Amino acid sequence: MAVRLCDVASLLRSGSWAAEPWTGQVITAMETQLSNGPSCTTSNGLNSVSNNCTSPVEMPNGNEDSKTNLIVNYLPQNMTQEELKSLFGSIGEIESCKLVRDKITGQSLGYGFVNYVEPKDAEKAINTLNGLRLQTKTIKVSYARPSSASIRDANLYVSGLPKTMTQKELEQLFSQYGRIITSRILVDQVTGVSRGVGFIRFDRRVEAEEAIKGLNGQKPPGATEPITVKFANNPSQKSSQALLSHLYQSPNRRYPGPLAQQAQRFRLDNLLNMAYGVKRFSPVTIDGVTSLAGINLPAHAGTGWCIFVYNLAPDADENVLWQMFGPFGAVTNVKVIRDFNTNKCKGFGFVTMTNYDEAAVAIASLNGYRLGDRVLQVSFKTNKTHKA
DNA sequence: TCCTATT
């Protein structure tokens, strides 16, 4: 089982995500896990221990498709689809490769799919790349289950666990309800002691439902307290919560003003429906924007505050602007500037917002925002005729 | 009281 360290290492050196300065060693270990190994503990991150107790080379449900199609989990946040393809392409010919990204923000969700032409290459990729350490992550490579609605929302959050309970014991407790895909017990970062909370992902949602019915409020054997078992939060919910709390803290709460009914409804729809996370990479504060605005005289045409959005992708459309700015308040107009001949976006656009405070928060939040593989520049549109 | 696994 020749692990092609040279191939992989050269790929890693050429990739931007391999050049993180804090990672002393890109490849710190490559523990290839074969089918019969009982010791399948994989560590991911500093404060948790995860277990992949399904052997990676074991076929899920004997589906023909899954002999070539792999799911790759725990990818570094900044790894691109091209880099994923490059890494897995070192094994054999790839039929298709997809890094899964948030539909709206374009951020990597940390997993992807690699479909090989030949089943033997898929197996080789599992044997070679499963357990590979990339930056702070230990990637997991396994056969993808056939895609189906029944396998979604099958992740459980478990709390109130005895601190002495091991992952194996946790799995033993839950395995009576179905096939466990992953399990995890969160541990204290410093002491490594269990925090009494964990996760169980089942193969199918119905199994998770049965586990809730059977175990929620029950005491595990030997335990003195009952455990809580519920569906885990999902990432999109978390994003909406971040948005909600962001809005809650935004200045427009203090000065509600006469917001149009339509604008409020639009904002609510967005909050409820969008899988959208506000990540503020921008060092610009609201005050920073305000002072900048003071210098550059933001354009206010009477109908609202005009915002300049720069570095949009060629295929950007109005929709993405509505989706980005809508949650921050009343948006009355958006426009993507396109080339007359090609109809492709020329890299910038404009958004008009009714209220100054909402516009300022939107700018502070979205300037420096990474949309796909681009970093946006967002500012009040300046009125050049009045500039020095 | 929350690790991120279904295109």
From TrEMBL:
<keyword id="KW-0694">RNA-binding</keyword>
<feature type="domain" description="RRM">
    <location>
        <begin position="305"/>
        <end position="383"/>
    </location>
</feature>
<comment type="similarity">
    <text>Belongs to the RRM elav family.</text>
</comment>
<dbReference type="Pfam" id="PF00076">
    <property type="entry name" value="RRM_1"/>
</dbReference>
<dbReference type="InterPro" id="IPR035979">
    <property type="entry name" value="RBD_domain_sf"/>
</dbReference>
<keyword id="KW-0677">Repeat</keyword>
<feature type="domain" description="RRM">
    <location>
        <begin position="154"/>
        <end position="234"/>
    </location>
</feature>
<dbReference type="InterPro" id="IPR012677">
    <property type="entry name" value="Nucleotide-bd_a/b_plait_sf"/>
</dbReference>
<dbReference type="InterPro" id="IPR006548">
    <property type="entry name" value="ELAD_HU_SF"/>
</dbReference>
<dbReference type="InterPro" id="IPR002343">
    <property type="entry name" value="Hud_Sxl_RNA"/>
</dbReference>
<dbReference type="InterPro" id="IPR034999">
    <property type="entry name" value="HuB_RRM2"/>
</dbReference>
<feature type="domain" description="RRM">
    <location>
        <begin position="68"/>
        <end position="146"/>
    </location>
</feature>
<dbReference type="InterPro" id="IPR000504">
    <property type="entry name" value="RRM_dom"/>
</dbReference>
<protein>
    <recommendedName>
        <fullName>ELAV-like protein</fullName>
    </recommendedName>
</protein>
